[in-house]
Amino acid sequence: MVLTRPKLPLELREVADPRPATGQVLLRVLACGVCRTDLHLADGELTASLPVIPGHQIVGEVLEGPPELGARAGVPWLAWTCGECRFCTSGRENLCPRARFTGRDIDGGFAELAVADARYCFPLPERYPAAQAAPLLCAGLIGARALRLTGDPERLGLYGFGASAHIVSQVAAAQGRRVFAFTRPGDADGQRFARGLGAEWAGDSGETPPEELDAAIIFAPVGELVPIALRAVAPGGTVVCAGIHMSDIPPLRYADLWQERTLRSVANLTRQDGRDFLAMAPRVPVRTEVTTYSLEKANRALEDLRAGRFRGAGVLMIGAAPG
Ligand SMILES: [Zn+2]
Ligand SMILES: [Zn+2]
């Protein structure tokens, strides 16, 4: 499924089989998660090298590759970094200015076959079938990075309860944190879903939570939530914006930032984030709830994501049986 131009549906195309270059693995794609970033790319809110095959949560069967990867590998958003810049050499390869990203700069996993640089692939925990493993690779991984950047909050707010929050909620609850979930106004089903995954309270995004929060993560791409979240956190609290794109933030009142509140974003992932999270997920244990689609239904999956029509994560089932 190929993104040829922004704002057009992905196009089902027969393309030449990719051939692995030196250092690359060849994968038969079993499943590939759908992420809001794919929607931002399709909508032209992020630039991509077009045409491109989107998809950066690839679970693949290794057809050609180094033995240490095993039979099944995961391919995340971070596809390549330079290894030489001040960011790469200081443990911050997620900020490498020359970084390349799966499904944006190189073809991703909305396809039957994919190639990836073996150094950026992960072995996957065995307990997860392909469909359930796919959302770990971005929703889980970048969610866990955002959670780490909140510090050590006792009371954690999650704004937008989609694929990422449904995983982060489980991790945070297992760490003993108290989770407060905010959904689209009136989304009673989403609020029930959140309470079933470790949230002690769930309400509408504009609501004041029953207690002050120590930190909040904003997953929804909605800039209006920034001042709302800042007003919900206690002095010294942190608000992390976890999305790659967000609508404009309205003018901030300094009083909302005052008292040592911190506002920051989280960008991409490092390979260490991936290793840490994939080791942690089975220990929590994180359970992912997925809605599956065939490869040809990728446009439907993106529209359902936009409209909030499924709970948890959307996953394209390609070489694996529907989960
Ligand atoms: Zn993603
Ligand atoms: Zn670099």
What is the strand and helix layout of this fold?
Elements (H helix, E strand, L loop, with lengths): L23 E11 L1 H7 L15 E7 L7 E4 L2 E3 L19 E2 L11 E5 L4 E2 L6 H4 L5 H11 L5 E5 L3 H12 L3 E6 L4 H8 L3 E6 L8 E6 L6 H8 E9 L12 H4 L4 E4 L5 H10 L9 E5 L3 H10 L5 E5 L6
Helix pairs in contact: 3-4, 3-8
Number of strands: 15
Report the order of strands and helices: EHEEEEEEHHEHEHEEHEHEHEHE
> Number of helical runs?
9
Radius of gyration: 19 Å
What profile does the largest beta sheet have?
A: 7 strands, mixed
Low-confidence stretches: none
Distinct ligands, ions and cofactors found in the model: zinc ion
- Given helix and strand content, the structural type is alpha/beta
Query: How many angstroms separate the termini?
Result: 21 Å
Task: Report the top-level CATH class of the largest domain.
Answer: Alpha Beta
Mean pLDDT: 96
Report what the structure shows.
The chain contains nine helices and 15 strands. It has 323 residues and is α/β, with parallel strands linked by helices. It has two domains: 24-137 and 269-317, Quinone Oxidoreductase, Chain A, domain 1; 141-265, Rossmann fold (3-Layer(aba) Sandwich), CATH 3.40.50.720. Strands 1, 2, 3, 6, 7, 14 and 15 form a seven-stranded mixed beta sheet that branches. Strands 10-9-8-11-12-13 form a six-stranded parallel beta sheet, sandwiched between helices. It has a two-stranded antiparallel sheet with strand order 4-5. Helix 3 packs across helix 4 (163-174) and helix 3 (139-149) packs across helix 8. The radius of gyration is 19 Å and the shape is globular. The model has no long low-confidence stretch (mean pLDDT 96). It binds zinc ion (2 copies). One zinc ion (ZN) binds at residues 35, 37, 56, 77, 138.
